[in-house]
Amino acid sequence: MSLFSRKFWKPGTEAPDSALNEERKSTNEDSGATVIYNPNRSLSIEQQRQRLPVFKLRNHILYLLEKYQTVVIVGETGCGKSTQIPQYLLESGWAEKGYLIGVTQPRRVAAVTVASRVAEERGSILGAEVGYTIRFEDCSEEKVTKVKFLTDGLLIREIMGDPLLKKYR
């Protein structure tokens, strides 16, 4: 149904989209499983990384991060912002000399999922080079972890203890 063919719904009558919604519900049965569609799953992880939109901008992003104190990167969901940019920083040496690359995620599940994916792409064990910290769970090692995913709330807690975030890059 297009935006211009919307119909007003009078309470007490059947909603205009009710048949369409019932069809959607029947095709998405509540199986309890989350389905993630990856059309490139047959490719190697390196080939998958190269097909992401952010890959073409790698050098440009690294240049901007070196030149400017603050860089805002906006991209569509699935373009590689959360998974690739931390890896680019790690590969460029931003996590040397004991520094951490911190990546915030709005939800606990997002922090864990993205950290798992990045660890898989790096070929490391989750909690070693790549880790996460969410409320009541810290899956990182102080001396080993270089990229740390955390929720926004945990970042605020870290700021309370270290207002300048001296260990983060």
UniProtKB/TrEMBL annotation:
<keyword id="KW-0067">ATP-binding</keyword>
<dbReference type="InterPro" id="IPR027417">
    <property type="entry name" value="P-loop_NTPase"/>
</dbReference>
<dbReference type="GO" id="GO:0016787">
    <property type="term" value="F:hydrolase activity"/>
</dbReference>
<dbReference type="GO" id="GO:0071013">
    <property type="term" value="C:catalytic step 2 spliceosome"/>
</dbReference>
<keyword id="KW-0378">Hydrolase</keyword>
<dbReference type="GO" id="GO:0005524">
    <property type="term" value="F:ATP binding"/>
</dbReference>
<comment type="similarity">
    <text>Belongs to the DEAD box helicase family. DEAH subfamily.</text>
</comment>
<protein>
    <recommendedName>
        <fullName>RNA helicase</fullName>
        <ecNumber>3.6.4.13</ecNumber>
    </recommendedName>
</protein>
<dbReference type="GO" id="GO:0003724">
    <property type="term" value="F:RNA helicase activity"/>
</dbReference>
<dbReference type="InterPro" id="IPR014001">
    <property type="entry name" value="Helicase_ATP-bd"/>
</dbReference>
<dbReference type="GO" id="GO:0003723">
    <property type="term" value="F:RNA binding"/>
</dbReference>
<keyword id="KW-0347">Helicase</keyword>
<feature type="domain" description="Helicase ATP-binding">
    <location>
        <begin position="62"/>
        <end position="169"/>
    </location>
</feature>
<keyword id="KW-0547">Nucleotide-binding</keyword>
